Amino acid sequence: MKILITGTAGFIGFHLVQKLIERSDDIIGLDNINDYYDVKLKFGRLLETGISENRIKYNKILKSEKYNNYQFIKLNLEDKKNIDALFKNEKFDKICHLAAQAGVRYSLINPQAYIDSNVQGFINILEGARHYGIKHLVYASSSSVYGMNEKQPFSTSDNVDHPVSLYAATKKANELMAHTYSHLYGIPAVGLRFFTVYGPWGRPDMAYFLFTRSIMENKALDIFNNGNLERDFTYIDDIIEGLIHVINNPVTMNNRLPDGSSPTKAPYRLYNIGNNTPVKLMDFIETIEKHLGKTAKKNYLPMQPGDVLSTYADTSDLEKDYGFRPRTSIDQGIKKFVDWYKKFYHV
Are 175 and 139 in contact (CB under 8 A)? Predict the structure, then answer.
């Protein structure tokens, strides 16, 4: 089985590769290694999978120095010509598409990056799936699509037609695009709405990472909406377990759309993948303080544009269809992250 995994210099993609290379599958990882956040962290992840910085060249497939069944290519999703050539030459069986321009707040600053990567890039992946016989497409959506929905827990049957950030709008667009291709060309496709993933090797723009760094450097934490926020924090190992369950089991025909209304003949599904247990932001900060052994200075600020008050995943469909249920507590997950942070940054 040959699998394309996009975003393998990223947080989730890196962890997925680490797990899948233990199997007999042939895996090609793709990433453009952009500078949205510190590329040293991205190169650190790649090095863990046997891809050294000084060997990477654009559009050249590079074999891992550690694993015989893993190769990497540096390539932009929006580079249609070379994406098409990659599909034609490699003849993938499955795709796990995790690459995207991430971040809600950054979408206020650089909206074009989201159109290029998340829309143009995704259509290139869908075209590859269409023309080269992909047997299963799994792709990353986001809990951000729920916007300011007040009904909780969030369910895939909820209306998500009113996003409050461009990032969320592009993820909703991905779901619609994937359904269209699934319906027209019979591509089995599963979209996973991720809920606030955290853990070792995580993204430095995420709150838990910023909080940890600020506490270690004796800087005040910027706490938005005066701390009155909740998130369904989900530990990375749980996310990867759920992802692998889905990758292993392609979907078949569905008799209804996620909102339970119009019939569809597409082999298409949407699932929430989260911890199913929202945590108050201030409790989360206290857990970080506990494992760092330091008390944070706090700078309370108003709500940020594009942010949401609370996220809470209804994961019953994923549990029913795949037997998946997260197991890692916030206390366990934060301890593992703090241990990694101290080791990686030598503090």
Answer: no
